[in-house]
Structures are given as C-alpha cells and as structure tokens.
Design a protein that fits this description.
By secondary structure, the chain is mainly beta. The protein contains 3 helices and 9 strands, in the order H-E-E-E-E-E-H-H-E-E-E-E. A 3-stranded antiparallel sheet has the order 6-7-8. A two-stranded antiparallel ribbon has the order 1-2. It has a two-stranded antiparallel sheet with strand order 3-4.
C-alpha cells in the first residue's frame, strides 16, 4: 500500500536537497492530499481509500490512464478528478536510466493483489502491474508554489 511504502517514505525524506543546479525549490514544494485505493480484488478496485499528505508522490492509475469507470476515485485532491496528465501512450513512455530502451515505471495504485502495484508499461500502455519488489523506474510528481 502507498500509505506505508518505503518508496513514499524515501520520496518525502526531509533531508533531500530538491535542487537543480543553483536553483533550490525545496521550500516551494506544496503539500498534496492524496486519495489512494487500499485494495484490488483481482478484477475491480475496492471502495476503501487511504488519505495521505505528501510533498512528492507517484501518480495513480486514474491520473495516468483515466482507467477508472466505477468506484471511489483514486486521485490527488489538488488535481481536478478525471484529468488525464498524459495525452497518449507516447507521452507515457519513459527512457531507461542508461538512455537506451524504454522502462516501466511505478504508480501508487494497487493492482492484481495485495502485493502488486500498477505500473505504466515500457510502451506507455495501460493495465500493467507487478510485484512491488521488482525494480522499475519512478516518475515522481509534485506541486510547486510558483509565486515570487
């Protein structure tokens, strides 16, 4: 589950620098309220959700693919529900760290069973999932206060 995951803890570690070159944006990162489903019974999501507040997070399956048709929404409270953040599969593709080939990347939504999480496939396709101990990429999301 996202709420107790090591990845969530690591992304929100207060000792991270969060800078790019000479530009530090750590103080501009806003808290974001996340609604995340707690379970998936093999064919549908449960309506049970966990609510967390994070500065850095993974996107949900719904935010990435707009794949939810019924049940409790799995979205950030600060992003308009039903808004898909990627135009198409091409936009969802991620290049592997080595710079060659494509890489799968984790989402925070549960999928498959208690020990599986959703992920965006290497081709950007939907509905992929796997054992959360597998090593795939991450595409962290955050909200910034851009006011001077």
């Amino acid at each position: 589950l996202w709420s107790g995951s090591e990845l969530r803890t690591n992304l929100n570690n207060s000792t991270h620098d969060y800078s790019a070159g000479n530009l530090s944006f750590k103080d501009a990162i806003l808290d974001t309220t996340l609604y995340t489903r707690k379970g998936y019974n093999g064919s549908t999501y449960t309506d049970s959700i966990s609510i967390t507040t994070d500065k850095v997070f993974l996107l949900s399956e719904e935010e990435t693919f707009n794949s939810l048709s019924t049940g409790t929404a799995d979205y950030t409270k600060n992003i308009y529900p039903g808004t898909v953040l990627f135009a198409d599969n091409h936009a969802r593709k991620a290049t592997a760290v080595s710079g060659t080939g494509a890489s799968n990347w984790w989402l925070r939504s549960p999928r498959g069973n208690t020990y599986f999480a959703a992920r965006a496939g290497a081709t950007g396709g939907t509905g992929d999932y796997g054992d959360i101990v597998s090593s795939f990429g991450v595409r962290p999301a955050l909200r910034l206060n851009l006011a001077p």
